[in-house]
Design brief:
This protein is of the alpha/beta class. About 35% of the residues lie in helices and about 20% in strands. It contains 9 helices and 9 strands. It has a 6-stranded parallel β-sheet with strand order 3-2-1-7-8-9, with helices on both faces. Helix 7 packs across helix 8. The protein binds ligand BJW. Ligand BJW binds next to helix 1.
Length: about 240
């Protein structure tokens, strides 16, 4: 077998669970008190902007209070040391990969600490609240929304993701349930292009059968173990 050179890593809410950020689909998950259609669709936002803005104001506070955990730190270490192509595609809207030091990160579902002005189409860092409907600092319209991708909207930077998947020798999925497309289909796309596929999760995901190997456990333990293996493999090449 050829040595692994190019890696695509898909992360989901499970990697941030041990940083205190709730996942979506656990029994006590984020949407326990909210129906997903009431908060995570453009239609819901049009119908009840106050409810949706308040939900994301709360999420923003949670992100600001959270700290990266050993799984984020391990991926940052791999990013810094891996000599081949590497792309961390995260579905998460938190910035914990970046705060741990990772650089090759792509947020396919947007960023919780950013706002998007739908009047002038500007995107900007945002750490305050939006439920008070502040004006856009650029065009002054009252048309700011969280810069995140809701159901029915196109995830960001799909061309870059598909290009990376085509070149990947290894696809690794960490802490995602495989319930939301197009991310849930990445494993199939990577495999069709010849990649090995590894899943790291607390429990098997919906698409578990697509992976060559599944390692089960908390991300803060199994991600650093896997990263050490990869770096050890580099040293012995
Ligand atoms: C641990 C752990 C620990 C816990 N250690 N692990 C029918 C069929 C197919 C598709 C569709 C369909 N009907 C509609 C669609 C499309 C739709 C979709 O997928 N719907 C599904 C409900 C079926 N998708 C879309 O609309 C997307 N857009 C789209 O498809 O555009 C068209 C297109 C087509 C082709 C190419 C390109 C585009 C947009 C999806 C947007 C999703 N947005 C959200 C909200 C973002 C903002 C926010 O954060 O509020 O993104 S939904 C939510 O789910 C969020 C997440 O990123 C996403 C995935 O969730 P994730 O991360 O997997 O979390 P959980 O909770 O599900 O799982 C956590 C996992 O962690 C579990 O497995 C645990 O075991 C594990 N875990 N603790 C390790 N300590």
């Amino acid at each position: 077998m050829q040595p692994i050179r190019n890696i695509v890593i898909l992360t989901g809410a499970g990697i941030s669970a041990e940083s205190g950020l709730q996942t979506f689909r656990a029994a006590d998950g984020l949407w326990e008190d909210h129906r997903v259609e009431d908060v995570a669709t453009p239609e819901a936002f049009a119908r009840d902007p106050d409810l949706v803005q308040a939900f994301y104001d709360m999420r923003r506070e949670g992100i600001l209070a959270a700290q990266p955990n050993p799984a984020h730190a391990a991926l940052a270490r791999l990013d810094a040391q891996w000599p081949g192509e590497l792309l961390i595609v995260t579905q998460n809207i938190d910035d914990l990969h970046e705060r741990a030091g990772a650089r090759r990160v792509l947020h396919m579902h947007g960023e919780g600490l950013a706002a998007w002005c739908t009047a002038c189409d500007s995107r900007m860092p945002w750490t305050g609240t939006l439920r008070d409907d502040p004006p856009c600092p650029i065009c002054h319209a009252h048309a700011l929304r969280p810069d995140i991708v809701w159901f029915g909207e196109m995830p960001y930077r799909m061309d870059e993701i598909f290009a990376a998947l085509r070149e990947a020798d290894l696809f690794v999925s960490i802490g995602t349930s495989g319930a939301v497309y197009p991310a849930a289909g990445f494993v199939q796309q990577a495999r069709e292009c010849g990649a090995e596929a590894l899943e790291l999760n607390l429990e098997r995901s919906q698409g578990s059968g697509w992976f060559h190997e599944s390692r089960l456990g908390p991300a803060s333990a199994i991600v650093p173990e896997w990263v050490e293996e990869m770096l050890e493999g580099l040293r012995s090449r």
